[in-house]
Design brief:
The protein has 400 residues and is an alpha/beta fold. It has 2 domains: 264 residues, Crotonobetainyl-coa:carnitine coa-transferase, domain 1 (Rossmann fold, 3-Layer(aba) Sandwich), CATH 3.40.50.10540; 87 residues, formyl-coa transferase, domain 3. 37% of the residues lie in helices and 15% in strands. The protein has 17 helices and 13 strands. The strands form 4 sheets. Strands 5-2-1-6-7-8 form a 6-stranded parallel β-sheet, sandwiched between helices. Strands 9-10-11 form a 3-stranded antiparallel β-sheet, with helices on one face. The chain has a two-stranded antiparallel ribbon with strand order 3-4. Strand 1, helix 1 and strand 2 form a beta-alpha-beta unit. The longest helix has 24 residues. It is elongated, with a radius of gyration of 25 Å.
Length: 400
Amino acid sequence: MILDGVRVLDFTQYLAGPVVTRLMAEMGAEIIKVEQGPNGDPTRILPIIKNGRSAYFVQQSLGKKSLCLDLSQPESQSIIDSLVAECDVVVENFSKRVADKRKLDYASLSKINPRIIVASVSAFGRDSPYANKTGYDWIAQGFTGVMHMTGPKDGKPHPVGIGIADSNAGVHAFSAIGYALYYREKTGKGQYLDISMVDALYHMNEITVQGYQASDGAYVPMRAGEHHALVCPCGVYKSAESYMVLLVLQNQWPGLCEAMGRTDLIDDVRFADQDVRAKNQAELIPIIETWLQTFASDAEAWECLEEHRVPSGPVLSPQDTIDHEYYRGRGAIRTVHDPVVGQLELPGFPLRFSEQPEYEPGAVPDLGEHNAEILGNVLGYDETRIATLTDQGVLLSKKD
């Protein structure tokens, strides 16, 4: 595995942080998940709960080891400091106030281990005028313009229906850690990574920020519902069975007309180029939808569009993906057998490396399940010392 031998001290909870270490676990890193007693990561009790275990928690926790500490006790800080000395990476997504209180700031950790790489994932970043503000996924969606651009035309802003800001920030932090490890191989130096959910999501604005400027204010970014404001056809179209997505630029426009049997539209003055199609999309959209609904199935419509090299695809629900031939054939979904929840189908690892063997997901840890293993194997504590720490309430454990 590419990250074999890399040891990560993981203080993360909820989603943005756990995404980072979940991806690292899948590449072979040893993840020591430090959980605050008595209840641990709050996502252990997020819905959906089955047999007392959260399906949400399962996805982000495969293959991690759980060390549960009472962080209010001084002995816990001593354990953490000792672990920092033995780790390559620390990942945390506390607020700045809590991170500083727990001495998880880079200045403190690098004194213990100069080679340490520390990644902080927060809503507004650490070096920021808003460093002390709290924030979650939808806060970031609202602050970055994403929510402004999502929703029905002339309607209210809508959030994207999945944790796009959390997951996106997690992937950015994951990639940054990889480059930091590469830099350390060259120089021997650790470093600090300040990853902001807002920055990562804001980076996805592909034209909405500069479009207003470049058009001298003629283009005012605004949500346009299910169809793009500047490009047509580009949107969601009612089809025979459900909905389909088409994205047709100038080079694909003749192909769509041919697929529809409407070559007369290729040079129609209403639709001849991209700009006029966008202006006249209210006339064009019903033509496309009427044609799509002539097929017996969406699969047939998609096949016809593909024959003419028209970029398109069906709108799938999450449950539609579970047994879909693409997701199965690509290995983008995998079956996990959890001893508590039972069999689950989960999104697979999104990256493909020719030198990375297929990952066999490890079990989801019970709270504090690996206390003795971590302190024994990593720090060399004997059974008596571990038992004493357990009796003192420094080490905690509990079944889900």
